[in-house]
């Protein structure tokens, strides 16, 4: 994650070129957390009215954060990168007055939600989310913070996507190139264990430790996987033998998809932290993305298709749970 914090990392390119999640993902998250589908004042367990509040950890330039704004009274996006927070704030300036009133971005990380720094009071948050970010966290340290800031019955939902693939490639060899590039050439330039956790669709991401904190409702622990059943290229449903026996696992016939020209795919590939690190290590003139794009071209990217585009897919994973109600 330290790559994203560097001033040399293109946060604007990241915001423009990363794929957006399907609306159904956000609907599913709200359903898991029992959040109404529109912003509303809720009634707390003490019988007092309280505003609905969401915190987005590792928010980056706000790709997911903005999608939650209509459903909450207050939203806070946190990211450890000053660069990302700056660009998220710039994007916010172009939004409507209601969004600007509800949402703010700040520099911070999930492992330290200090009240003095961020103004997060104890038992004040309804839902904490993290989109394509949780794999960088110290999981148990974050959970420890959540037991303080979440309301009784409050939830966390962490979600993300794995390795890209071609669901309907114009040339079968295209799907062979991706693991050769990402898993071999760039292998030593991914930050681990984060990348491995992301590729596992968060199946390697641990639940809160029941032994260390008794506040969690373990019956709420669940994993959701979003995979395309009809595609031979789609990843299989992962498993984690260390999961508690009561963990619910659900599979959904849905993937993150985009239809991209080679130029659009190249822009996405340039958001990879591993490619950025590779070029830094290999000095001036190194352009690992350009070399890979040339190989995609010679292999037949978009061949025989009028628009020259390919359908790109990503399997998605989700881990969630909630605090016990009082």
TrEMBL record:
GO terms for biological process: methylation. One of its GO terms (molecular function) is S-adenosylmethionine-dependent methyltransferase activity. Keywords: Methyltransferase, Transferase. Gene3D superfamilies: Vaccinia Virus protein VP39. It comes from the Eukaryota. InterPro entries: Diverse_substrate_MTase, Methyltransf_11, SAM-dependent_MTases_sf. It holds the Pfam family Methyltransf_11. Residues 55-158 form the Methyltransferase type domain. Coiled coil: none annotated. Belongs to the methyltransferase superfamily. This is Methyltransferase type 11 domain-containing protein. It comes from Microbotryum lychnidis-dioicae (strain p1A1 Lamole / MvSl-1064).
